[in-house]
Amino acid sequence: MTVERFANEFGFDILCMPAPEKEISGAYIGDLLSWVMGKAEQSNVWLTIMSNINTVAVATLADTSCILLCEGVRADGELLRTASEKGVNILSTDLTSFEAAVKIKDAVR
Known about the structure:
Blueprint: H1 3-10, E1 13-16, E2 27-29, H2 33-39, E3 45-48, H3 54-62, E4 66-69, H4 77-86, E5 90-92, H5 97-104
Parallel strand pairs: 2-3, 3-4, 4-5
Antiparallel strand pairs: 1-5
Helix pairs in contact: 2-3
């Protein structure tokens, strides 16, 4: 499933989508950036509440398909500009990370 289809199918808000065709395989939930760098797998949806500029670097290093900001967290302009430049898709939802994971569990396997 592509990030664009994923966002539309599950009703997630699109904050930045420079690479809508990226494929999703799996998901990772984490807020400790150093942990995510070592544990998230390529093409994962990364569910987090972290919205600082370092999330773009981590998403790039881990080669995640997108960042899904949970619990209503929003991204500032600097984060969105950097994400766009680096090809990092960012979505958001008001759901908790757990609720979002349950909602998407069958689609991202």
